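Justification of resources, computational component.

The compute hours requested in this renewal are based largely on the per-chain cost of generating structure records like the one below. Each record pairs the submitted sequence with a full structure-token output. That output is archived, and it is also reused by downstream analysis tasks.
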Amino acid sequence: MDRQQKQNREPTECQEMEHQEDKSYMPGTVCFSQTPIVRFRPKAVSGEPCPHEVGERYHLSYKMGIGGCRLIKDILCTHGFQEVEATSTNFNVLWTGPLQKLSLIANLSSFQQINHFPKSNALGHKDQLYQNLQKLKKKHSNHSFDFLPESYVLPGQYREFCKALLKDRGIWITKPVSSCEGRGINLIKNPPKMMGKDKILFSKYISNPLLIDGLKFDLRLYVLVTCYDPLIIYLYKVCN
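The structure output for this chain reads:
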């Protein structure tokens, strides 16, 4: 049975599925008025069998692009998804890296999902994140963004940074714009004499940060954004 036939299933089957305790659906496969979803179970990670093989039931498939990992493949396979060739256009899920052509996303069908929004990689680059927040600050009010420390992206803003450093001889923190796990972070009091081509974010260091037992800490909120218009955000709730 092809995908188009699946979209034309009788309403009685949809109603039966709706009353199941564990609802699992995929866009384009069933005839609900609300947005259909697939609910992935954590049992897939532990190797236990999942209670509903929704992928096999509706012949769902996925394609792995650049940036795909074994864990994602294992989860999809456990839920009955079949992997297709890299050249195939017949898939339900495309899992790939953030750098995607807009034409690829624009040509997706209603039953196809991708794991990245266009330009979402700007959230992971410190220079682009800061510059976008600065634009919001100008558009709205300074009070809404008073948590942002004074920052400069070098080497492009080297002169501006040197002027700011002369006014305030305090401590500044430097971070590579696309690094992670604390790599390349330094504290300085004097401007660097030489700058390479790589971009580095220089921010005013908070003199009295909040500490736990004398140590700095991270407070992280894990969110999932499924739509921008309208904006739909899911916040992960940590259970103690």
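The two ends are 45 Å apart (CA to CA). Residues 1-33 have pLDDT under 50 and may be disordered.
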